[in-house]
Amino acid sequence: MNSEELGFFNRQLAGMLKTGIPLEGGLRKLCETMPSSKLRGELLALEGDLAKGIPLAEAVKQRDLPEMYVRMLAAGAASGDLPGVLIHFADYSEQRHSLTRRLRGMMTYPLIVLTVSLLVAITMAFFFQIMATANADFLDDVGSSGILSPGARPFVLWMVPVLIALLWVFFLLLTFVPLLRRRWQWYLPGLRETCLSQLAGMLHLQMCSGIPLAESLQTVELLEQGTPVASELAAWRAQIGGGQGGIPERPLRNGSIPPMFRWMVRQSGEDMADGFAQTAKFYAERSAYRNDTLLFAALPISVLFLAGIIVLQFLPLFMALIRLMDKIGDAGA
Fold this sequence. Notes:
This protein is an all-alpha fold. The chain has two domains: 3-80, Receptor-associated Protein (Up-down Bundle), CATH 1.20.81.30; 107-333, no CATH class. The protein is built from 15 helices and no strands. The longest helix is centred in the C-terminal third of the chain and has 61 residues, at 272-332.
């Protein structure tokens, strides 16, 4: 589901609730203005359940909605401040969408450069293969230049395109496959700060709505399944269950949550919700700075990479042509 769309919907719904419009009526009217989608269908079904008299906390659990959204609605219903919870969730959803869009933007340069490099490499590989088919001595001429070993076979010419293609597929999957992206972004500079900001934001969102830390960690752990931080969140939750305090002083598993993160939250004292909010803001600013730095560095690096690929592909051809001209000159002499 589109986090931006869900955030905008909740902001509008919160405004309606503040003016005294019943929840069922607000859901129905807003859904009438939404395009046909999975989100619209689930919200309409939720409105139908509420109209039948089913409590919100029970009705929302029957819908295929994000786990955090389900828990937030239940917490809002229990606290009696559903509009406030909806606004908090809208802020979080919009921030998450902005960070996700920034991550995708960072992948644009590598994909463009790799696409151009792949096209150049494939074109040159086809050219070499055609020339080798037409002239059996062509690869030997290339090999005598020192770029390829003498007697190289045509499949050797496809090594560069295959390697570039594998790298291109990796970046493509990293950009468009959420599960793979969520796992790898914990290891990449800049993206890791984005993950930490979102982690702190999710914990802040739940705790400021009255959800205990242990339950908040459980929700985030479910959302982060398949990522390195999931096991650390599980260990953190187990530590709380054992009565060993709220914020661990040392890494619990693989160190996915850095010391700075834990230290900043501890500075808030008893108000951990505010501590998570400040931590989320800190890592969001840090992520923006590092991502902007990487974007500025990406262009010159991309140009150099593409230039290297072009030189690597064209140099054997030039050497082969020089060899051929030498042969012609020797024959004329």
